[in-house]
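From the shared-data thread, chain only:
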Amino acid sequence: MKDKFNQKERQDIAYRIKWICKGCPEEVTYHDIKNNLNSNNDLLSYLQNKSNKDFLFEKEMLHQDLISILGELTEITDDYYWRRIALYHGLIQFRQSKKGLNENDIKARIEDIEYKEERNGMTQIFLSSLKEACSEKGDSLARQNIKRISEDREEGYEEDSLYNQFTILIDQSTVLTKASDLRSGVDKGGKREVSGLQALKILFEFNNYDFQDYEFGGGKRKFKKTQPMSLEKKNILKVLNDLKPLGLMESIEYFS
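Structure, as tokens:
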């Protein structure tokens, strides 16, 4: 294995792929290519081959093999992230994106749905977390399902396990109290709300910086643009955005 590319080489290759040649997927940016060049084994191995690199700098059209590798950069292949996407969509996003949602109806429909045991458990995670979100005091069976999948798929993950992250989110959720209860000063409990931003931080390691457009730069130029969000995080947000308008059956089909 040859040495990895230095910064100047990465800049030249990324610039060539994105701005000079034709065929680079539109959603893959210059920074995505440059930042993933040494960390993505397929991309690195391909361009470490002299004939492949020569082709890149001699031809205007990208080789189909390279186009395919670049396209794969926008895909989430690790089930670790898919399990958390299913949890986020069920626990937070589905209910918050559906105005006038009848939660009792959703719970009844979940209980009526017959779904076969999926190898990766994504469907069960989505349905169990959604049932939890629609239950004022939580749902013990739904929590047991998430715990079972977590222990089966993520044995040894400990603090980073799906179930541990799930319980942290539940513990950090806030109670939405009705206005009438606030005026009376009586705490009658109510629906628990999980912060979407907090969930992104816990499940996917997002931070406040990821959502900033500018940062303090110092000197004459006090503010400058922040560094681009990592491709991995952009892929996660894209999938969550694709899931947002889906109904119950559509979401089940998506995760099946």
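Confidence is low (pLDDT under 50) at residues 177-188.
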